[in-house]
Amino acid sequence: MNKAKLVVLIIAILLLLTGVAYARWTEQVNILVLTKTAETKLSYVDYTTRMDGGKASVSNGEGAQATVVFKEIRPGTGNSVTLRFKNTGTIPIDIDDINVLYVSGYSDDYKNDITLIVSGYAGEKRFLERDKKIHQWRANSSSSNHDELYELPVNGIIEIICDLEFDEIKTKENNGQDKKEDSKKETETPDIIENVSFVIHVEYSRFNEK
Amino acid sequence: MKKSRLIIIVAIVALLVVGGAYAAWTARTTVSVNASSGEMDVVISSASVGKVSEYVVFGKNDVSISQDKKAATVTIANLYPGAEANATITITNTGTIPVKLSGCTQERISAINTRDNKALSTTDAGMLIVKYNATAVTKTGQVKASDSSSATTATLFSNANMVIEAGQTVTFDMQILLDQNAGDGTEKALYTFKFTPMFVQAN
User: Fold this and answer.
1) Which residues of chain A approach chain B closer than 8 Å at the C-beta?
2) Distances from the Cα of B51 to the Cαs of B84, B130, B134, in angstroms?
3) Which residues of chain B from 32 to 91 reach within 8 Å of chain A, CB to CB?
4) Whether the predicted pLDDT of B143 surpasses 50
5) Which chain A residues are closer than 8 Å to B69 by Cβ?
6) B196 contacts in A (CB within 8 Å)?
7) Are residues B118 and B112 in contact, defined by beta-carbon separation less than 8 angstroms?
8) Residue among A29, A35, A209 whose CB faces B76 most closely
9) Residue B9 pLDDT more than 50?
10) A6-25 pLDDT, tens digit each
11) pLDDT reported for residue A63
């Protein structure tokens, strides 16, 4: 057998083998996988007030923040607004911090006399309390906490209580006077009215599998 | 008559007799051949739910097999970073010949944000990871292989070399998880992908 014939024979065999390979049967199955991911969402719900005097209102309550306005507050009073936020997402969320932003409205004359105490509650459990003079909040809006304060379950509610305390003003007239003259002191206190507004922003993050 | 001529005549006669005998035999012999071909077939014989992370919604009703047993649908909800859902799909060789797992494909059909139906970024789309463990019952016993992918398309188990005898099974344990580092862009998203195990005749 010469060389040419050998080559032809090999090609023929290869083609035959290829034909066999193509003739192989095949089968397959299909598995379709649909995966939906979770959502994290903290939503402002509503507010309540407890006033010694003056007025309070909450506006622009949206998502994880709301604007609180105290109007016509007087020295010697303590007023309070309680904001409620709900976990409207589909997994628990971590409450990381509560920020007090855009603090304004008060006059510099009484900036050391007004104190804002911000407390965070989940049911009976208090997970945060910060007590600062109003101008200090302006300087540092954060509670400086960056760890998880509280893990809020789905549909769970937190309450942010904003207590605004306006100290009694010590005037030249009443400083150093006897207790007996307290009633007189009150009448001598000038008519001071202050306004304070700020935004409460709740910082939260997605729950992570531990 | 010469001896050589006699031999030739005898030889011719002998050949004629043999030919006649041969003709007679072929005429009378019936060889009956009933050749039936084998059957190659694989079906999804069962599907079940494995470990599921807390808050992830994935139960036995979330896995279904089509009537012809050639397709299955797995639906997982509320997956979040670091969480996982596990499903087990068993494929049985219901044919009459051995089949070989030639490979599997994983194809992402979509990865969208369900708030606006827009496609996720490439990074966010790649945050869904699927890990597979395959276990086949072969002639020599159980053979195991693993593979995983988060890519848009991937070819898996191409070197698994699993031959499943007739009546035996290959099981795929699927672990579907969202990367621990998945960003906010993966929230409220829908990932859809198709996993296709492919088989050829073994011989």
Assistant:
1) 24-40, 90-92, 154, 206-209
2) 8, 14, 17
3) 40-44, 53-55, 69-83, 85, 87, 89, 91
4) yes
5) 29
6) 28-31
7) yes
8) A35
9) yes
10) 776 776 666 555 555 556 89
11) 84
Contact present, B70 and B93 (Cβ < 8 Å): no
Q: What is the pLDDT of residues B60-79, one digit of tens each?
A: 999 999 999 999 999 999 99
List of domains in chain A: 42-168+190-206 (2.60.120)
pLDDT at A180 over 90: no
Q: Give the start-end residues of each E strand in B19-123.
A: 42-52, 63-65, 71-79, 84-93, 99-113, 118-119
- ipTM, two decimals, is 0.83
- What average pLDDT does the segment A112-118 reach? 92
Domain ranges of chain B: 42-201
Per CATH, the number for B42-201 is 2.60.120
The SS3 call for residue B3 is: helix
Q: Is B148 exposed, middle or buried (0-12, 13-18, 19+ CB in 10 A)?
A: middle
Is B144 in CB contact (< 8 Å) with chain A?
Answer: no
Residues in B touching A91 (Cβ below 8 Å): 55, 78, 80
Residues 102-131 on B with a CB inside 8 Å of A are 102, 114, 128, 130
